[in-house]
Amino acid sequence: MSTAPTTLDPGGVERLTRRGLRLTQFTVAYNVIEGAVAITVGLLAGLVSLVGFGLDSGIESASAVLVSLRLAARLRHGEADEVKERRTLKAVAVTFFVLAAYVIIEGVRSLLGGEAPDNSTIGIVLLIASIVIMPVLARAKRRVGTQLGDPLILADAAETRICVLLSISTLLGLGLYALTGAAWLDPVAGFVIAAFAIHEGREAWEGELVEDDDDDDDDDDD
């Protein structure tokens, strides 16, 4: 449950909550588009890591939808259904494990089969866009979450930051393959995504997906 700092008046709490809602809604819209493009391009090019990245975008959309529903309910009624929220969070955690299993199985199959994926310029551009946009989005969420003292918004910020790390790892795999032609680099990048997915899933299942409070300047006033 949100524990807003006492320095915020009710109007300030509502303003920040609405800002958090807009940020999560943007996250859903962006990740749906990103995921659809990544999965389509990844399947066409045979890039396991890009498909895994697209599936992760879908998972992050589900998480952002959960946060959006809670914030919208809070604005309407002042609180959300905590029991239902925890149940949904565990369901999201399961999807992380499913994603990890998919990427690992496909990666092993690709390595054993010696399959060589095609290059994907669109995929590389998509990943670069994510690396540019997602850090800004994560920081904005973290700022709102810190000012509100809201662990759920901070958790969503943590997931967005992990998306940045996934983008970087996937881009490195695709970029190095484009430069070297080493087919094994793509499934290895996929294994990195699997490791992140398992970590996210465990944290979500335990209800501990909360951003580490190491950003000392994020709780400054606007």
Describe the structure.
The chain is mainly α and 222 residues long. The protein has one domain: Alpha-lytic protease prodomain-like, CATH 1.20.1510. The chain is built from six helices and no strands.
The major pleated sheet works out as: none
The appropriate CATH architecture is: Up-down Bundle
Strand content: under 5%
Number of domains: 1
- Rg measurement, Å: 18 Å
Count of helical stretches: 6
Task: Using the coordinates above, name the CATH class.
Answer: Mainly Alpha
Mean pLDDT: 80
* N-to-C SSE string, H for helix and E for strand: HHHHHH
Structure classification: mainly alpha
CATH topology: Alpha-lytic protease prodomain-like
Proportion of helical residues: over 70%
Stretches where pLDDT is under 50 for at least 5 consecutive residues are 213-222
The end-to-end distance, rounded to whole angstroms, is 24 Å
Number of strands: 0
Assign an overall shape. Answer: elongated
